[in-house]
Amino acid sequence: MYGFLIAVGILLLISIIWMVYRIQSLVSVVKGSDKKVASGSNKVNAFMFVLFLLGSGALMFWYSIKEFDNYNPPLASEHGAVTDQLFWITMAVTGVIFIITHILLFWFPYKYQYKEDRKAAFYPDNNKLEVIWTVVPAIVLALLVIGGWKAWSDITKPAPENAHVVELLGYQFAWEVRYPGMDNVLGANDYRLTNASNVSGVDFSDKNAHDDFNTPVVVIPKGEPVLFKIRARDVLHSVFAPHMRLKMDAVPGMPTKFWFVATKTTEEMRAELNDPEFEYEIACTEVCGKGHFSMRRVINVVEPAEYRKWLSEQKPYIVNNPALVENLSPELKELAEITISEYK
Amino acid sequence: MATAHTATHSASTHDHHDEHEHHDNFITKYIFSTDHKMIGKQFLVTGIFWAIIGGLLSIIFRLQLGFPDMELYWLKPLLGGWIDDAGKLDPNFYLALVTMHGTIMVFFVLTAGLSGTFSNFLIPLQIGARDMASGFMNMLSYWFFFLSGVIMFTSLFIETGPASGGWVVYPPLSALEQAMPGSGLGMTLWLIAMTFFIASSLLGGINYITTVINLRTKGMSFSRLPLTIWAFFLTAVIGLLSFPVLFSAALLLVFDRSFGTSFYLSDIYIGGEALPNTGGSPVLYQHLFWFLGHPEVYIVLLPALGITSEIISVNSRKPIFGYKAMIISMLGITILSFIVWAHHMFVSGMNPFLGSIFMFLTLIIAIPSAVKVFNYLTTLWRGNLIFTPGMLFSIGLVSFFISGGLTGIFLGNSAIDIQLHDTYFVVAHFHLVMGSASFFGLMAGVYHWFPKMFGRMMDARLGYIHFWLTFIGVYMVFFPMHYIGIAGFPRRYYSWTNFEFSNMYTDLNMFVSVAAIITFGAQLIFLFNFFYSMYRGRVASLNPWRSNTLEWTTPLHPKHGNWPGEIPTVYRWPYDYSKPGAAEDFIPQTVPLSATPESNLPHEQELVKLEKAIIADEEEVLVANESKES
User: Which family does the UniProt entry place this protein in (chain B) (predicted)?
Assistant: First the structure.
């Protein structure tokens, strides 16, 4: 019954709109407004542009200022300070251009709206002006690019020798976190060795792999360089750590990397934000299938001393699961068993 | 003797058309038409159909993003199994929705719907030609597009769903059926559809280029071409050079999918088994894809900019400011568009040195874009502005072009892009600069040339309401996405609540979704206006906008062949608006300089002498022809 009434209501509304529409078009025919170059609506539209400029401009400023702390993600890496600075410099430069051009774009329609007694200026070209607004943007852009280029070169240069290596392997739909252990050298891997108990396809015939271990949480020291070695084993993924201003695709068959220095421990950030629940996070930003939106890993940034302590407490793959080295050659197996016994 | 040749040629074409006009039946007139005007309308109506589909898809995923707790049982009759028992949208289908929304909007609406419509409709009319160089190829172009659309449409309804790997369909995701259901039959159909689409684009593009080069009427030199034609011409050049590369990318993907090759596949363990493929590179696909993908942005945008240039000039009653600068900047954009593609790949794992090179090249392309904006502004300055719906949409386009273009400066900077890549900042950027700007170009063009297409006017007042709702609506949808993007919200996420950094802004997302629904609803006003005015709109006058270009010298309902008699000769550039000394505020291109001594500029007075000689020559030829015929 209600459905029927609503339908009738909508029908009535549509027919009223229809009537109004027909009447106004007939009235305009009678008035002969279709013969005029510009109807009365011209003024309304001209005024609307100014109204839009003021209204949306006010809304933009109000929201941008009010929400600043909300949309501006906390920062916790050294290179992130540089890229954030570049971001805000670019924001200032483009912001000024944005505002000036929009003031002109919406004010001109009001100022120069059609008037029967006025003739538009015949002003087809001015080469001096063209040169000015080619050269000035070119210089501004060049300055922005040079800043960006320097930052980019620093960020992408090879990681320092002493960087702590962490391997992140993306797969549908999680990250496997592997540490190289005490030797800071990851063992070799081969995707053909992958199985349920060897998610990263670690090749345990490489003795560097014997102290490799995995963890559910990425633990890294504050103030020391960390090198993420990034792999994928099925489709593209992308490591995104928003607070570290870090992003790098994980590509099957092509290992990638990204190094950085974290500047605040998780505890420090919790205190700063007054949020005891805060965690640094890793997300996936390259569409990878159904679970793309749920590939979460937590990064725990700790003081270097705490990191070393934590590192020494971790148990390698082969200690947790000695079956992994069962099929190795006798010499390697012996080596592996020594490692296992050391951890026991 | 080139002039003599053209004259006889056009005369004979004309005769030819006269003979055939009366034999048009329904099928040759409305379906398998070789008349460029009808083909343009076919592209337009098909484009509108796809825009509705593409828009509806986006509404469905905006419901998921804005109202994640909403129960969507009511969509079950339409989506069936894609709504699960709890009334939730399936995450796989969510990805299918964003993929198809992107594919449809970029290719079917803004490439075929925009370029297909207006290049076809306007090129012969504005350069003074009877039709395209090859009417048959032109017809094929539409029907390949149609076929492509049928296949893409079918893929929406198959059990495993349409392609779902994002509109870029990066392998290995798109190459391996095990990776997601959409990579099965849906992806196969996507590839087949795109192959036909590419064929359609190439057939169209070759035609546009040939026509512009060869079939311009007497006097229509390149320096007298309206900017619309320059834009369509350069767009066609870009398409012709870049679409084949997309085809090769797709072809290699077909090989990888079906014939066991390893162009893009290497070291993959999926679904519990290690695949034999080694040595391929997913990054290769990205290079090939973006070699089209980036020029595609300009394929979509340039025609819109061309249309805007024309409409802003006409309705400002002023010549477009910096006609030559506009052409040079379009040429610059055309060339540069081919050497910036890898800025989509800064964090794809490619060599960072390549990243620095592409950062430099990318920011160069901002310069011609800036020049265009400043020229638009100067065209408005001291004009006598008439706000037709077409003019409103053109001004709206310039606004989007600025807003979206400026955010491109962030994203083109590889250091800043690290954080912003694949977040909503990118979504906001390209939806403004390429999506909305081009869409507004399309709308501006429809409102402006509707009288030429259908001989009737669209209702202006509905046009104003449509514009303001859409303009404000588009900003309400895409402006907030910048904030969400700066906060780091990743693209193509079914839900953001799994992460603490993105477990907020439910209010803003809800706002965006509501704005999207309202904006989509506002398009119904346009649809009504469009189809109603086609039959019941007020009959248009011959030159309703008092415009200079040639299309307005044709009859109200031009037949196949466009002009009943001789094709008019062109004596001046298309932007003589409000010329000092002239009685009217416009002088059509067909008016000889010798007829307007009162308004001629000094250098034009010189040309008058030359013109007189040419007119005398022509008359001789005409007399000679007539005596030959009799």
Answer: Belongs to the heme-copper respiratory oxidase family.
